[in-house]
Amino acid sequence: MRASLLQIDVNEDESANSRRERVASLVRAQQDSDLVVLPELWPTGAWAYEGFADEAEPLEGPTYEVMAKAARDAGVWLHAGSFVERDPEGPLYNTSLVFSPDGSLVAAYRKIHRFGFDGGEAVLLGAGQELVTVPMPGLRLGLATCYDLRFPELFRGLVDAGADAFVLPAGWPARRRGHWTLLARARAVENQAYVLACGTAGTHAGVEQAGHSIVVDPWGEVLAEAGTGEEVLVVDLDPALPGDTREKFPVLKDRLLGFPAPRR
């Protein structure tokens, strides 16, 4: 299985519509891949909080339409990164979409862990409530987004739901790049699963992006890692490796759940 991670430069001088068309062209160029992955909030910029309300779209809005067509034209499974979704009956969400090779929407994931503590996403966006997996030929993808990477229990839940590969779009800041690569490898090792983590390049809303999109195998080995600029990262995956790893080194069988409350 071949995967392409598109590390997009989110330039504030480029309109969201222009970027959608440019990214769609990049997706169409990946016809030799089975899976294409885009970063978090690439239409607007993950840190451009002031524009979230103005740039928010309905689920089947401009990003949906352009990405569905791009997936169909390229004949690929497309994780279209995420965008700011406007729910007509609720708050805004940081929402990821996954399309099949015929352009059909097969999954939508609303980011559960919102970054910002007392500001940013944590204030402006609603929290997702559901774990989402996507069965594709050879692998079951577990969906997560950026800040989710810091919460291992989410990934355990995805493993329990059958995931053997995690796809994680992000707008990770350069100042914490060390955490990005460390946590990507940790999630791979502890869950014996692939991690495909796709970030953005450039600087938006004054925040320099880490770049360094990364693909890690179930043993924690880095298969491919991008630099800091816009880049297409292409890697071949062995769909049998997660199962083989779990069989040869069955640590997941030794998980203990339901610990009693500690004595006080």
UniProtKB/TrEMBL annotation:
Molecular-function GO terms, alphabetical: hydrolase activity
Domain CN hydrolase intervals: 1-239
InterPro entries reported for this sequence: C-N_Hydrolase, C-N_Hydrolase_sf, UPF0012_CS
Keywords from the named record: Hydrolase
PANTHER family: DEAMINATED GLUTATHIONE AMIDASE, NITRILASE-RELATED
Family listed: Belongs to the carbon-nitrogen hydrolase superfamily. NIT1/NIT2 family.
The protein's name in its UniProt record: Putative amidohydrolase
Organism: Streptomyces candidus
Lineage: Bacteria, Bacillati, Actinomycetota, Actinomycetes, Kitasatosporales
